[in-house]
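Quick one before lunch.
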Amino acid sequence: MRHLLRDDDLSPEEQAAVLRLALEVKAEPHARQPLAGPRTVAVLFDKSSTRTRVSFSVGIADLGGSALILDSAGTQVGRGEPIPDTARVLGRMVSAIVWRTHAQSGLEQMAEHSGVPVVNALSEEAHPCQLLADWLTLLEHFGSLAGLTVAYVGDGANNMAHSYLLGGATAGMHVRVGAPEGFAPWDSIVADAERIAATTGGSVAVLTDPVETVRGADVVITDTWISMGHEQEREQRLTTFQPYSVTSDLVAHAHADAVVLHCLPAYRGLEIAADVIDGPRSLVWDEAENRLHAQKALLVWLLERSGATTSPLGT
Ligand code: CP
Ligand code: NVA
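Model of the norvaline complex:
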């Protein structure tokens, strides 16, 4: 049984295979039907979502299946039912579980007890589905990933920064995170990314100077300064992160052909300037669309390895 709880649940070869599959699935959206029946995938949300909700819903239907979209506030999970009990019940009825939640430990319990593949649709620690979509976007743009220099500036202690570190090291990329003091990525994530990078030819750097972070980079990335769950820190964060705003002046320090990513939702005038996200270097709309294709590929890949597929067409 395979799961995607963190980006480094996929080896370098496996990440590359999922991305190749994503290109195939994008070219032929209905060729693979591993959920024909239809079989059901539960998609649970403890937090808000637009892209994740829609892309899983559409993607599961494209794969022949039925998406059961649940806001956990309306389930017994929201009233404190133990996660292992919920996992056992869901696993008897659905073919996979996708969950947007707070703690990584909840996802680990769900994976341990459900008996079906579990996908992290965003936690405090990582956002590996977004990472796959981002790398698919870069693969389409640059033709390959290994050796690219990716510069992320802003909140280094959030899920996206962690996913870029882990997923970038896995792909053999050079990942730089530029964040203010107190907002560096978690030490354990940096250590894991360094260990992976040592095997792939990639590298990891944690910096504080935004200009140094983006200098010569092929890709400049940012994310909201106020991730879900941190709303009460808004005023302090707006002040602390202001020097890390991705403006055209900052992007001018990157490679002349650099592109810009943002997982969305974006807050123009804060973490990114309107003329950057809406400008010619921005790939954000391809990036958002690629959530659909990358996640379909991921589900195909996980279902094939869980022994849970009906005879899929086109395989
Ligand atoms: N990027 C992302 O995960 O978007 P949503 O929060 O809208 O799902
Ligand atoms: N870091 C953001 C990502 C949103 C898709 C958050 O956790 O809110």
